[in-house]
Amino acid sequence: MSAIDGLPPLREVIAEHGLAAKKSLGQNFLLDLNLTAKIARLAGDVSACDVLEIGPGPGGLTRGLLAEGARKVLAIEKDARCLPALAEIAAQYPGRLEVINGDALEVAPLAHLMPPIRVAANLPYNVGTELLVRWLTPQAWPPFWQSLTLMFQREVAQRIVAEPGSKTYGRLAILSQWRCDVRIVLNLPPEAFSPPPKVSSAVVHLTALPEPRFPADAKVLQEVVARGFNQRRKMLRASLKGLHPDIEDLLRAAGIAPTERAEQVPLEAFCALAREVSAARRG
User: Fold this and answer.
1) What structural domains does the chain harbor?
2) What is the pTM (predicted TM-score) of this model?
3) Which residues touch 256 (CB under 8 Å, ≥6 apart)?
4) pLDDT in tens, 250-264
5) With bands split at pLDDT 50, 70 and 90, how would you rate the model's confidence at 197?
């Protein structure tokens, strides 16, 4: 599918520019432009939005987003080898693609974007979770973005949408579901990529809620959840004992049995506990 924009198929782009995927950069390129166009559509209506893309590589998703009418795409790419291929896309869509050669963990994108903003990316495996946690834990809420449409290893995607009682339920599920509607919108097998990774992948769509689902101080909630899941096999009265001297009383006040383990506690109860801890610390 090259009719999307008149540019060459991605295999030709990769061959022309010598873009063999680098394991050190967590690169696995998605070459089917039908799939990248589908992911762009899963990001929602981008026609009135600026879109932040991390790790565009040869630009498959970039092309999909622009073809879907994105007002502007800001693509942050660490691998300088990809810049000539991305420049060809920019020439095809004058004034609508800006490329920054840099590390997404270090670049401040907001100086280059105008709201409303959506994020869409086939995230490099080695930075995906860290970027997600940053986007979910800004100092103020709502965040700068309306939605995140992100490719992860399937295992990570399952952790984002996990429910209490499951082995995958943990910190990532709490952080994601407290402030967002989350769902897996696409599953992809290893053979969809070049080179094929050893694991399956999935696209997760997160829509920012205007306010968190339940009231809680963000920093206290993060502290409670981190302590609880860092020692997930322990009962909460043990894993959380460093939070407050009266942790068992606070657990009961939040409606949680002190003998429960973190993976059994729903989001609403964690928020209730965070409120109890905050109140007890204020004294």
Assistant:
1) 10-208 (3.40.50.150), 218-282 (1.10.8.100)
2) 0.94
3) 236, 265, 269, 272, 273
4) 999 999 999 999 999
5) confident
